[in-house]
Amino acid sequence: WHMTSFAALTRNAYGKGWGYFLGTVVAEQNFYDLLMKEILGRAGISIDLELPQGVEASTRSGEGKKVLFLINHTELEQKVHLPQRAYDLIAEVEIEGDLTLDRLAVKVLRM
In principle, which of 5, 40, 51, 90 could form an S-S bond with 55, CB 3.0–4.6 Å? Predict the structure, then answer.
């Protein structure tokens, strides 16, 4: 191969952090999950959720409060296991354990 002397992924120190460059598209979806786990771990960021493919999670926190936003971008019902009890701010109910996200649904949870 004419590309064997080139790296597909590089990581370089910059200032107090690291910069990553991915110069390819990887067919195996698991690669991106593992890469993000590596990057977040190196940054000291822990992830408490295991998300199914197509489900997005985002948190906002401040003044002792934390809100978790879950978005199901798929046409399928998805299940997410919550690591702790939460309060659904839209449905106004307590949730514990497994949460079902309807297709294309959004949940806003106070953690």
Answer: 51
Please, are residues 111 and 99 in contact by the beta-carbon 8 Å criterion? no
pLDDT range class, residue 41, cuts 50, 70, 90: confident
Within 10 angstroms of residue 40's Cβ, the number of other Cβ atoms is 12
Q: How many Cβ atoms sit within 10 Å of the Cβ of residue 84?
A: 12
User: Do 26 and 35 form a contact (C-beta atoms < 8 A)?
Assistant: no
How big is the chain by its Cα radius of gyration, in Å?
18
CA–CA separation, 109 vs 111, rounded Å? 6
CA distances from 108 to 36, 56, 65 (A): 24, 12, 13
Q: In Å, how far from its chain's centre is CA 81?
A: 13
pLDDT in tens, 54-106: 999 999 999 999 999 999 999 999 999 999 999 999 999 999 999 999 999 99
Q: Are 87 and 94 in contact (CB under 8 A)?
A: yes
Look up tokens 């890469």; give the residue: 35
